[in-house]
Known about the structure:
- This is MFS superfamily sulfate permease-like transporter.
- By secondary structure, the protein is of the alpha/beta class.
- The protein has 22 helices and six strands.
- A hairpin with a 6-residue loop joins strand 3 and strand 4 (426-434).
Amino acid sequence: MTHQKPTGRISRFPHLRQDFAASLVVFLVALPLCVGVAVASGVPAELGLVTGIVGGLVTGLMRGSSLQVSGPAAGLTVLVFEAVREFGLPALGVIVLTTGVLQLAMGALRLGRYFRAISVSVVEGMLAGIGLVLIAGQLYAAAGAKAPASGPAKIAGLPEAAVDAFGSAAGSASLVLGAGTVAVLVLWKRLPAMVRTVPGPLAAVGLATLAALLFDLPVATVEVRGLLESVQPPPLGAFGDLASVGLLGTIVAFTLIASAESLFSAAAVDRLHDGPRTAYDKELMAQGAGNAVCGVLGALPMTAVIVRSAANVQAGARTKASRVLHGVWLLLFAALLPDLLAYIPIPALAGILVHAGAKLVPVRSLVALWREHPGEALILVVTAVSIVAVSMFEGVLIGLALAVVKTAWEASHIRLEVVDKGAGPVQAYLSGNATFLRLPKILDSLEALPQDRPVELDLSGLHHLDHACRTALETWAERHSAHGTEPVKVTEPVKARQAAEAATEPARAG
């Protein structure tokens, strides 16, 4: 019996059919999101496509997470908009390029795994804050109005913007189209499976575009400049802005948020499939390479995007070929059919991003988190509110600081047990972690012990005794002994006792 040898194409690309089909699905999901994120970020729509193309052809070819798809993300929209408004479009390339270089350096130094140590509540609070600001800003775009600059002003001005919109034909048409887009996205998953073969975002934008054309609605549409005209590498003079503290702070915020979002997305995607697990340091370098290229081209920053990645896995992708091919389809569309973008209504893209922003606000999980871990829920809420009230960078720093304080407070749990038999010495047992945070409580309890009785202080149950606490305990023991009672007998913590015994061992041997 003879066995036919497999062809070279099948042996080299055994999953080509599955990856090809998945790439088309991801392309159809990514197309409206790339354009929508770019428009919401205040940059030409083509730059969103450029970032999607780089995410497929550059990041997609690199090792890290084989099924994760990268591109412009709704999570960075607010930060990009603020950066462009404050520093100008030429500076965006500098920011994104420097972000990419930092990510490459962190990946090379094997720091990717440490991003998993960032408090999940801070990351979810960060995304929730971004989602709230994104929703507020895009509601203005859906109403055909200009959004105020700050987060509180956006929220406070919504009622007036709604009244103004309903007072004009153009505003009403714009709002109806935006609301219709959100309605399609919400209801799409309830339709028959055959209908849902078309991705929801594409269907919503397609139906909105068709409605705007058929009814000749007076709504704003995407402004088309052309791919080559939109790609503007940052001029050399723009790199001089790196001396600005504000620009450096923005770069740190970009790096932190893009890296954390990408690596958290990778962890989520790993739970969706049984294939190879993510190599976090390599994935961070892949994201860095993609952002460096995007910076050189003056395009939007990229992150791994969970919506596209989940669509990729659910469509049956098996290897990274699917995400590379999705970049090819985006490139062909941008090169051959860019004029189609001019028909897309702005309110439809605003509806896409309002829906995306709502997904970033974890309302249901917040309720459960509050019941089980109220401290973590508080960190999430404070981070989100700080981002809305102040800014992205300061909000994240406030969240991180609050998480550190909470961890330090919980780590300093200490228990004092007093045994007084009525005669003889009073026995005091300290257990847990004795840190300066709990020093007032410790001293109040010890100073309440009878002054005319000898005390035995047992510290063997302590896991940690910091310098401040040791000094305070020694001072208290001296004061207590000064009242004419026997000196306080102190049993050292286990680790300290073992260290002392180890130090005296060489002397005994000698």
